[in-house]
Amino acid sequence: MTETHSDIIIAGGGMVGAALACALAKQGFTITLLERRKPDLQWPQHSYDIRVSAISRASQNIFHNLQAWPRMVQRRVTPYEHMRVWESGSGVALPWVPEIYFQAADIGEPDLGHIIENRVIQGALWEQMQTLENIEIRCPASISGLDLDEQSPRVILNDGARISTTLIVAADGARSSLRGLAGISTGGWGYNQTAVVCTVKAEAGNQSSCWQRFMPSGPLALLPMEQDLFSIVWSTTPKQAEGLVQMPPEAFSSALTQASEVRLGQLHLLGERGAFPLRLQHAKQYIKPGLALVGDAAHVIHPLAGQGVNLGLLDMAELTDILVQARDKGHPLGSLHTLRRYERARKGENIAMQGAMDLFKRVFSNDIAPLRLARDLGMGLAEHAPPLKNLLIRNAMGVAGNMPSLARVTR
Description:
Layout: E1 3-5, E2 8-11, H1 15-26, E3 31-34, E4 52-55, H2 57-65, H3 69-75, E5 78-80, E6 82-86, E7 99-103, E8 113-117, H4 118-129, E9 135-138, E10 143-147, E11 154-157, E12 162-164, E13 167-170, H5 177-181, E14 186-202, E15 209-215, E16 218-225, E17 229-236, H6 238-246, H7 249-259, E18 267-283, E19 287-288, E20 291-293, E21 299-300, H8 308-329, H9 336-364, H10 369-383, H11 386-397
Parallel strand pairs: 1-12, 2-3, 2-13, 3-9, 6-15, 13-20
Antiparallel strand pairs: 4-8, 5-8, 6-7, 10-11, 11-12, 14-17, 14-18, 15-16, 16-17, 18-21, 19-20
Helix pairs in contact: 1-4, 1-8, 3-4, 8-9
């Protein structure tokens, strides 16, 4: 079969892969995107995706700069202005409630971020891809063979087609088959936790707020969607998660209401429930000659801070900057000299975030009395230290420190 050529091949058309395709195409590269199955771009108006993402300001800037943000707003996005994080029932008398309250007004921002259904993000990016003539989408397509070198790597598809390129990017998720073909190993561990996800209706409305309660078995997050709806991410033991998924809807709604301490009134389940095992995973290396990993193919993080997709979007934005600079200087895109700049820029940042979230999870997911007292004191101190609290907000929003070009506000 005849071999074709593309400047860059991207394996995986999820949120990060599709965003990268749009970003590189806008910079004049010819892109071939390989995806096993085409996403559904149409769905009933009053249905809800049980998988959502908490999109930071940096990620919002990326979507805006890719011209995909208006498409998301047209479908459905929910800004939130407040976040409440608490732990109750320590049994120890404290001079304050172990709770932190963040609000956008404290740092002069209109909101802290947006909750967006994953299908809305992916759908908007796919629609944007289809407007760009220098993106070829091959779907369904999967890779069966891989030849890597710095000058002309190539992939072999299951149908026998061969495509040569200057760089291959693996954006095919946590179980990346391309990462496996490249012989890149991963490290990490399971958390012995499962996230139960669903959509619920709240008697007291969503109050433009995210809510998160820490319990010994894991955190419960309530992420606002529309006026009186929340997306639920309830991380708990696998055994309890199985019970929560299987119990009748009325019993589940009651259990969830009690777990939320009735802060939003009665909660009522809408539609299906899903369950997803949680783990930390990190690729031992992000690059090989002619290959780079981005997003979940490179790193998987605990969802308690909602940073997973935001880290992946920063990966693709950083890689875009580096590839544009390499092209402008006449450097090979797939050379280790070029790709090491990407790995240095992102690997340390991602490991640091993984470590922080892993520590956070371990500190809060137990009921040891001295440790519980220490963390309750810490939450109270943070609540009463506005500079520290505002720094935490700015870091989570992605408005602090150096950011890739796409993650910055354009005028």
